[in-house]
Structures are given as C-alpha cells and as structure tokens.
Amino acid sequence: MCIRDRYNVDKSTDEPVGETGNRNDNQWSRNLRRTIASEEFQSKYPSTENPVPREGPLSHQGISDGEAKSEDTHDPLVKAVPDKITDNSNQSRWTEPLKHDSTNGSPRFNRLWKGDPGEEDSPTPPSVPTQLQAESSSWARPPLKMLVDASEGGISPEEMDDTSRVITDTMSHYGVEVEIGEVKPGPTVTMYGIEPGWIRKLKRVRVKDENGQPKLDKNKKPIVTQVEEKTRISVDTILRREKDLSLALKTPSLRIETPVMGESLLGIEVPNPDPSIVSLKRVMTSSAFKSLSKKSALPVALGRGSDGQEVVFDFTKMPHLLVAGATGSGKSVCLNALISCLIMERSPNELQMLLIDPKRVELTLYNGIPHLVTPVVVETDKVVSLLKGLIKEMMDRYRTMEEMGVRNIHSYNSKVKEKMPYIVVAIDELADLMMTAAFDVEQSICRLAQLGRATGIHLIIATQRPSVDVITGLIKANFPSRISFAVTSQIDSRTIMDTVGAEKLLGRGDMLYQPIDGTRPTRVQNVFISDNEINALVEHWKESPRSQKLEIDLHTVGDSEEGSDGVTTPNGGGQDELITRALQLASKHNKLSTSLLQRRLRIGYPRAARLMDELEDMGIVSSGDGSKSRDVIANSNV
Questions:
Q1: Is the pLDDT of residue 374 over 60?
Q2: Could you tell me the end-to-end alpha-carbon distance of the chain, in angstroms, rounded to an integer?
Q3: Element (H, E) at 525
Q4: What is the tens place of the pLDDT at every residue in 170-200?
Q5: d(CA 392, CA 387)
Q6: pLDDT tens per residue across span 394-431
Q7: How far, CA to CA in Å, does 562 sit from each of 33, 355, 500, 524, 614?
Q8: Which positions ≥6 away from 211 have C-beta within 8 Å?
Q9: H or E segment at 235?
Q10: Pick from 92, 97, 36: nearest CA to 64
C-alpha cells in the first residue's frame, strides 16, 4: 500500500477523497510529516530527520499520476515517495527519492531539490532563504588566527626563592625583620609581598606573687626576670631601605607600594631577569576578555598586570583615555594595539574612527579600512575643522536622542533598527596640535570630552611631552583614565598621574594604568602587536565585501576645498568669505593681530593666519615682526 492509498488520495484525479471531500495537498504533506514523526517510523529509523520541509514546494504542489516508485527498501512508507511534483503554474520540480544512506552506519534521507533539466532559470521558492543572502548584510570580522601568539619567558621558582632570600637577608643586616608573605610573578616584574616583622627588646621586670607583692630570693632581694617586648616595624623603616635593596638585588629600579594583593602586605616589584612579551592574541583569547566582549560595546585588551592577571576594560566606561610617555617607551605600540583590538571586535556599522597622526608614520597604516570616517589626517591645519564637525555631529545626535526620549546611545540603539555607531577619535601627538592652534584644539577636545560620552564619542590622546602647556589642567580634568609609560622625571610623572612612580618604569611597554574607578595606578605590561599583524588586519578589511554602514560627514559649512593641484583655495571665487569682515576690523583698529581675528571672527588659527597674509598682500597691514601686532597702514572703506 502506497502513501497516497494510505491517506485516501485518488490517483486518477489527483484530488484527495475522504470525509472532508475537498482536502488539498497541504493536508497530505502534513499527514506525511505526522507519519514520519510517529513512533513506528522512528523506531525503524532512529536517526532520520523529517525529509519534508515545512514550507516549500511540498506544502502547495500536487502530485501527478503514477509517480510512486519503489526503492530498495522494505518499508512501505518509503516506497511511495513522489519523484515529480507539479505546482499550479505547471512548473516542474524534481526531488530525489527518499532512500537509505548507510555511510555512517545508520539510515537517513536525502532532502536535495534539483531543478528541471529542461527548464531554464527555475525560480527558487521564496520561503527557503539561502545562507548567503542572510550573510550579505553583515561584515566579515577578522579571525584571531591572523594574530601571532608569542612565546612567553618568565621567572623560575628557583629564581623567586633566591630573590626572596636576598630580600630577607638584606633587611636583617640592617636590623629590619621581614617575612615573605606571597609572591606573584608577572611578565616584566615580580611582586613580593613583604610582611613587616617586630622590633624585639628585652626588659627587666620584677616577679610578683599572686597578691601583687614582689617575690624575694634567699637574700631578701626582689627577683628580676627578662621579658621580651615586641613593636611592629613601621612602613617608613622599610621604605628607607629601598636603595639598599636595589643594590643587593643588582637592579636600578624598584617600586614599593602598600597595601597589595588585598592583604596587609608591602609590595616590592622586582624586574624579571628575562621579561616576557604579552601578545595581543593571548589576552584576547583569555576568559576575562571573552566575558567582557559579550557584554561590552567597546572591549579593549590592555595587557597583563604585575600579578599575572589579564587587564581588560570597557572603553565606553572610561570614557576617554590620556596616554603619555617618553620617546621609545611604547606609547605608539599601545595606540596601535588599542585600535587593532577595537576593529577586530567591532564592525564598521558598530564603530567608526577618526585618526589624527601629525607624525605621518604611526597611524597611516590604517588607511583604507572601512572604519575610518575620513582618511588618516596628517595635516594639522585640518584638525580644527574636523573637530568642530565632530562637535556638530555630537549635537545632532543629542537632538535625535531628545526626539526619541532617551538619555544615551545605548538606550537609543535598543529602540531603533538603524543603530547609531560609536565614534573613537585617536590623536597620536597632542603637542603638535597645541603648537599650531592651542586655543581651538583645547576648546574642541574639552567640549567633546565633556559631552561626548552619552552620544558614543570617545577620545584617545597620546603625547610624548607631558608638560603643563600640553596637558593642561582643563584637559586633565576631562580625562580621568590615564596611562603613563616611562618618563624622565618625577615632575612629568606628577603631570600625568598626579603621583610619582612613572620615572621608575622599565620602558618597552611597562606602564602605570589608572582607570576612572581606580584609587591608585597599577603596573601593567602592555600587549604587543607587530607591523605584520597590523598589515594583515588592514588587508582583511580592505578585501572583505562591503556592507551597509552609516556615513558620517564631519565637514562643516565654509570649509576650504582643495583644488586639483592640491592647493587650498578659499570659498567664494578667489577671495576669502571673511575678508570683508577682516577689512572692517582693520578700519576700526590701529593695530591688528592674528589672535584678534580669531576672537572677533570666531575662526581658527590657520584661517586667521591666511587672512592676515591676504591683508598684508593688499597693503592694509604692515609685514610681520614675530608675534607682535601689525600696524594698520591703510584704512579700507568697506
């Protein structure tokens, strides 16, 4: 008995008969699935999946006469599977018969559909979407296998025991009793937890009886005994022995802090004889980073602490980062590692970046990746206009969130389909920008730092000149999260971290890291990423298929445009649109300066300097004499 006979299907008319009288083929396909899912069928074929799709040709197509062909099987339920299925528009589909596949030792069924050989461009049923169509709207993120896992060095247990013995012996030579409570090895330094000992003194006291009276000996003299008195050694006593410890351990740099490891211990950080490299891949594959990546919008792998634990953070909670350090201390490598980690974890529709590199060699490797709002900016005179355009974008986002009735970008993205991407601004050398237009740069950076967190705009600023004229008090107040690499003096350390300690770092990625919620800085070895890894990452994003992303325009109204020869030409033909207002100022003053044009016309330094040059060419002002104001030599009737 075939399947159609079992379910009262009339072969001559291709119409089902029975109690309902007008049952269609949808009922037949549901009955077929119900039978295949029955206990009788599953007992014979325990590994069989349902070969009939719930939505597709079988759910709406009829079966022609004489289709039930038997296969090499003894089950009557399998013999009657149709070969040819015809839909209402007389278009044909073929399916292979349900047959056994004993390659894995258990029977299963074939569900492949094949097009009609005689029919060209057979349409695909709309109810069966392909996986390629589902993946075409998403970006292909780079795999972790393109990163290199560097071999780690470290310190052996024997070396830790020897160092512990040297510490206790050296302190005992100076009458300071200490004990090694706990040792935690790190990639660059090993922390030895020191427990302060006791100052022991013997005191002669008289022995008293139970009534409180002194006991007497045979000669009627009071009996005297010696009693030990203990006083805890002060922390300052141990700190005064820092140079003696450094001499005994043959190391020029020691760092002592208290308390450490969550206990009443004094921590002494001793450099390892064989420092190990912390690779970016090793930290990104750690359990701490994986758990952070699932719940964080911008996860960042920073490095490994002196206690051997991975240090990761959510950049959205920083919310901005200030990086400083001397030349060659690892500042640029840290910036590259932060950017690489972000573009590996987030696609261009989730994160976009504005990279500013006045040095022209550190961040230009990222040109061409789809995360960039604009190509890497290397001209300092374009930075002010881009920062002002970013402020405009920030205020537009605030107006959009105000209309939606939300407070931050996280709440906004949870309510809309077209999500708002995060924007990360990375500046490699702040000192160059402050030398060009200090007022405009500081004003724009502080405004972005104050208001950018809620709109998803975050800043990373790096400088190798940590002086007060570069890292001003206003900038420090808006950058609570800071990283300091090795510096040359305690003054620079206090400028960055508001405390000493950065002058004792070893360089090559050794840093002090203070997050926004940290009470004091912690020592961390920064992750390392090579140029080959960066190039492979950039090539992946360049070659990956382009998908949808939100375009962000940072060019403000009135920006100058570059001509075909690369020379910047002002708007409005050959004359600057602000030249008229500059001439009016010249008619009202006897002296004119670039700073006066900046204040009165509300423009940046590059535009004001060009206006001053044009006024000099027109014969309105005298030639420049350093930073002095210029004399107005001809009044203009404008």
A1: yes
A2: 105
A3: strand 522-526
A4: 999 998 999 998 899 989 999 999 999 988 8
A5: 9
A6: 999 999 999 999 999 999 999 998 899 999 999 998 99
A7: 68, 20, 47, 45, 18
A8: none
A9: helix 235-239
A10: 92
Question: The tokens of 624 are what?
Answer: 């420049």
Q: Per the structure block, which two tokens stand in for 143?
A: 């795999």
Question: What is the helix (H) or strand (E) element at residue 514, kind and residue range?
Answer: strand 510-514
Report the candidate in 17, 95, 23, 22 with the shortest Cα–Cα distance to residue 58: 95
Query: Which residue spans within 240-298 are E strands per DSSP?
Result: 255-257, 266-271
Res. 326 pLDDT band, cuts 50 70 90:
very high
CA separation, residue 604 to residues 436, 439, 441, 592 (Å)? 10, 9, 9, 16
Strands (E), 337-427: 351-356, 422-427
| Cα–Cα distance for residue pair 392/386, rounded to 1 Å | 10
| Angle of the 579-588 helix axis to the 594-601 helix axis, nearest 10 | 110
Cβ proximity of 615 and 622 under 8 Å: no
Sign of CA pseudo-dihedral 27, 30, 36, 37: negative
d(CA 361, CA 338) in angstroms, rounded, equals 17
The pair of three-digit structure tokens given for residue 455, joined into one six-digit string:
């709109």
Residue 612: C-alpha distances to residues 491, 586, 616 (Å): 39, 10, 6
CB atoms within 10 A of CB 284: 22
pLDDT of residue 91: 41
The residues, ordered by sequence, that sit 6+ positions from 234 with a Cβ below 8 Å of its Cβ are 196
Phi, psi of 599 (to 5 degrees): -70, -45
Tokens coding 145: 């296998």
> What distance in Å separates the CA atoms of residue 487 and residue 491, rounded to the nearest whole number?
9
Per the CB < 8 A criterion, the answer to whether 194 and 272 are in contact is no
Query: Could you tell me whether strands 351-356 and 422-427 are parallel, antiparallel, or unpaired per DSSP bridges?
Result: parallel
Distance between CA atoms of residues 409 and 452, nearest Å? 10
- Can you read off the two tokens belonging to residue 83? 């070969």
> What are the residues facing 528 on neighbouring strands?
279
**Cross-strand pairs, 229:** 201
In 327-400, beta strands by DSSP E = 351-356
Separation of alpha carbons 614 and 610, rounded Å? 6
What pLDDT score was predicted for residue 467? 87
Question: Scanning the structure block, which residue is given the tokens 């094949």?
Answer: 114
Q: How many CA atoms lie within 13 A of 530 on its CB side?
A: 11
Residues 280, 268 contacting (CB under 8 angstroms): no
